[in-house]
Design brief:
With about 160 residues, the chain is an all-alpha fold. The protein has 2 domains: about 1-100, Cytochrome C biogenesis protein (Helicase, Ruva Protein, domain 3, Orthogonal Bundle); about 110-160. About 65% of the residues lie in helices and about 0% in strands. The longest helix is centred in the C-terminal third of the chain and has 33 residues, at about 110-145. The radius of gyration is 33 Å and the shape is elongated. The relative contact order is 0.07.
Length: about 160
């Protein structure tokens, strides 16, 4: 009976340790920031997931502990309480901090070049590589010549020595 207890305890401990080590999303929202209206709070969280912390770079403001991220979270909640729609809140923040604040930039304006640069560079590299390989194929085919009888005799003499 004690063996069964030990096995069940070991399994329970292993399961607990496994669950405890799972990566959990970090949320930096302070209790004093949370809105009393659950619907508005849910909208604020959704908007916060799409806004970049300007201090932490590739971290959204919902997960960042930076003071500026806290200010942005408070600003988003203030705008929502004032009655702004999600798009109006995003437009306000972008107007104030620039388009860099968006974790997913738009594809309008000059940003289309950023979105298209990767595929265009890949196509350019493939074209350059194909041209290089084609040029090498032509050069090696025309560059080979047989040795003359005199050169062959001299080579044999060198190899014999």
């Amino acid at each position: 009976m004690t063996v069964i207890k030990n096995w069940t305890s070991a399994i329970a401990l292993a399961l607990f340790a496994g669950v405890a080590t799972l990566p959990m999303p970090a949320v930096a929202v302070q209790p004093d920031e949370v809105l009393s209206d659950p619907a508005l709070e849910s909208r604020a969280r959704d908007l916060s997931q799409d806004l970049r912390c300007l201090v932490c770079r590739n971290e959204n403001i919902d997960e960042s502990n930076a003071d500026l991220a806290r200010d942005l979270r408070v600003l988003v909640r203030e705008r929502l309480v004032a009655g702004d729609s999600n798009d109006e809140v995003i437009d306000f923040v972008v107007e104030r901090y620039g388009e860099y604040v968006l974790l997913r930039p738009t594809t309008t304006g000059a940003n289309w070049m950023l979105w298209a640069a990767g595929p265009l560079m890949l196509l350019l590299a493939l074209g350059v590589a194909a041209g290089y390989m084609r040029g090498r194929g032509r050069a090696s085919a025309g560059g080979e010549q047989d040795l003359s009888d005199e050169e062959q005799a001299r080579l044999n003499k060198i190899l014999d020595e």
